[in-house]
Specification:
Strand content: under 5%
Structural class: mainly alpha
Order of helices and strands: HHHHHHHHHHEE
Largest sheet: 2 strands, antiparallel
Number of domains: 2
Distance between the termini: 29 Å
Helix content: over 70%
Number of helices: 10
Length: 288
């Protein structure tokens, strides 16, 4: 059910992007022929200069990592905080019924790498403080790596307008050199004007939004990692699942806190517990 909710949101983003691009392009067509805004010389100056500066600034390996991270930020959809809270509450209930070692099955099945590692520590018998230290260290360096990628994108966004200005200067120099020759002036003025246009568009329509999207995605994933850390620590401390549910829901917005994850009916259905099963106390209530 959660995945079905994610798809319309993604479609809305794509629809909004397409509509904005159409409006953006339509604005150019209102002022005349669209081909007036295409100039190969200006485009080559901006793209060539920016690309060269980027290669001088960063190793190819770093740029490949940025490309992979950026592609993943748009193509992959993270789980929502509500889903993570539900998973952790289920794991807490399962550990109460079947013991911590039963969580090894979930460690092998989960597709969330951070949760898989945390469950591995829990199953292997790591102490609470050891797990917290390791997970906090992983979160810290995850944030550092993402900030490095974001910094690369913002640097590229800063370089594009600079080389747009270079293209404008080149065009102005050519125009001044051809004073008195109309053909030279007509050939160099488009270079001067379109270079600045290309630099501004590439920076503000692509790379600065890329960096902003990466920051937003990083914040989302850090929130999920914090929820997982607190949940795993609570499971290790054998905190009552209903107490854990209330604690983890404090990470959510008020509108997302509806519903009750730890209910007798849901637990019996989730873990296939029959009424004549073993009696267990959960949050002050007995489950037979």
């Amino acid at each position: 059910m959660k995945k079905k909710k994610n798809l319309p949101l993604l479609n809305k983003n794509l629809l909004g992007l397409v509509l904005c691009v159409l409006v953006f392009v339509f604005g150019f067509t209102l002022l005349g022929n669209l081909s007036l805004y295409f100039n190969v010389a200006g485009l080559l100056i901006v793209l060539g200069g920016t690309t060269g500066a980027v290669f001088l600034s960063y190793p190819v390996k770093r740029l490949r990592i940025v490309g992979k991270v950026l592609r993943a930020s748009y193509l992959s959809k993270p789980k929502s905080p509500e889903e993570i809270v539900g998973i952790l509450v289920d794991l807490s209930v399962k550990s109460r019924f079947r013991g911590l070692l039963s969580l090894q099955e979930d460690e092998e099945e989960t597709t969330i790498l951070f949760l898989r590692r945390a469950l591995g520590f829990l199953v292997d018998g790591y102490r609470g403080q050891q797990m917290r230290d390791i997970l906090n260290t992983e979160m810290f360096f995850f944030k550092m790596r993402r900030e490095d990628s974001e910094r690369v994108l913002r640097t590229i966004g800063d370089l594009f307008p600079s080389f747009g200005l270079v293209g404008s200067i080149v065009g102005l120099i050519g125009m001044l050199a051809g004073v008195g020759d109309t053909s030279v002036i007509l050939a160099t003025v488009p270079v001067a004007l379109t270079s600045t246009l290309y630099g501004v568009i590439f920076a503000n329509f692509f790379f600065i939004p890329f960096a902003a999207n990466l920051r937003e995605r990083t914040d989302q994933e850090l929130l999920l990692q914090k929820i997982i850390t607190e949940g795993i620590m609570a499971i290790e401390s054998e905190v009552d699942p209903r107490v854990l549910e209330r604690k983890l829901k404090s990470f959510l917005t008020p509108s997302s806190r509806r519903g009750r994850l730890v209910s007798l009916e849901r637990i019996r259905e989730r873990f296939k517990i029959k009424p004549e099963g073993v009696t267990t106390t959960l949050g002050g209530e007995k489950i037979a």
